């Protein structure tokens, strides 16, 4: 199979792949706890299990829209520097939020992660809107 992504998507897909890899240990962290504590479904009233589930679920709730925005930006011609900046911010923000939510890391990592994620949403959405609203096809 011959895949040529260099002319269409070459930056955003890097962060899609990295975020996919980041998700794997989050899922394992939940699964191992389930096995060890024999929790088949839900959290069984276990607060540590609930934190693990919410950490994983919050990642899944926040990441898809962010990567769609990055892909749209790249397809619309955003600079590589901007895409890398937003991609790195998203990866670090999601890891930070997860660490704070699950209490693996300090509490302040959680709000810092949300601020970083919201920054990616806002910057990318505004960039897309400004690009569309200022586009003049016949210049």
Account of the protein in words:
The chain is mainly alpha-helical and 139 residues long. It has helices at 12-37, 47-75, 80-102, 109-133.
Question: Main attributes?
Answer:
74% helix, 139 residues, Four Helix Bundle (Hemerythrin (Met), subunit A), single chain
What can be said about this structure in brief?
Helix 1 (12-37) packs antiparallel against helix 2, helix 2 packs antiparallel against helix 3 (80-102) and helix 2 (47-75) packs parallel to helix 4 (109-133).
Helix content: over 70%
Largest sheet: none
Share in β-strands: under 5%
CATH class bucket: Mainly Alpha
Question: Residue-averaged pLDDT, rounded?
Answer: 93
Principal-axes geometry comes out as elongated
Structural class, from secondary structure content?
mainly alpha
Low-confidence stretches: none
Number of strands: 0
| CATH 4th-level superfamily | Membrane associated eicosanoid/glutathione metabolism-like domain
Q: Mind telling me which CATH architecture this is?
A: Up-down Bundle
Task: Please report the number of helical segments.
Answer: 4
The domain count comes to 1
CATH topology: Four Helix Bundle (Hemerythrin (Met), subunit A)
